[in-house]
Amino acid sequence: MKKLTKNQQEFADNYIKNGNASEAYREAGYKAKSAAVIRANASRLLTNANVKKYIEERMKQIASDKIMGVTEAVQLLSSIARGEVTETKVIGTQYGADTVDVPPDLKTRISAIKEILKRHPNDDTMLKVQLRKINAEAKIAEVKAKDMVKNDDSQMKAIGGLLDKIETEVQKDDTTK
Question: Alpha carbon 115 to chain centroid distance?
Fold first, then answer.
């Protein structure tokens, strides 16, 4: 491939960026007297073999840079499972809305762990038991949180008793395995 001139490369880069050949032509520093001439010259540049090849190669590079690889995906799942990443949540306050950065909730972390384990299968019985326990704890915490929002004493006592029974059963189940 023949090396592009400075203007041709700027044209191609601007065209990739904004998708408008006429605008890319002007931004590259080319001059023309009318919009029709600009359109014609921009169109001619797009059909230039060297410019066309440069644009195709850059588009392939950009596409491959945007696609997440397996290693990057597992690293992201791992950081989610560890709670290292945060997400921004909007909460209502008495003064309006506010944003808060929070780590992923237990359900999200468990999902990330499951996805990692799918890719790295291991028949570790203890790991399965621990995952089951974390799932149960997440369900208990979720029910308790929903219960706290309702703020009804009779329901809180009834659900609290039920949750205590569930927790006792989960602990019994964990010790028998």
Answer: 15
- Which tokens sit at 52? 């066309």
48: confidence class by pLDDT, cuts 50, 70, 90: very high
Q: How far apart are CA 152 and CA 111, in angstroms?
A: 32
Residue 177 in contact with residue 133, Cβ under 8 Å?
Answer: no
CA distance 115 to 164: 30
d(CA 27, CA 6): 12
Residue pointed to by tokens 């799932």: 135
Q: Tell me if 85 sits within 8 A of 54, measured CB to CB.
A: no
- Tens of pLDDT, residue by residue over 24-42, are 999 999 988 899 999 999 9
**In angstroms, how far is the first alpha carbon of the chain from the final one?**
67
Look up residue 83 and give its DSSP letter: T
pLDDT at position 160 is: 78
Cβ-contact 104, 87 below 8 angstroms: yes
3-state per-residue secondary structure call for 24-72 = HHHHCCCCCCCHHHHHHHHHHHHHCHHHHHHHHHHHHHHHHHHCCCHHH
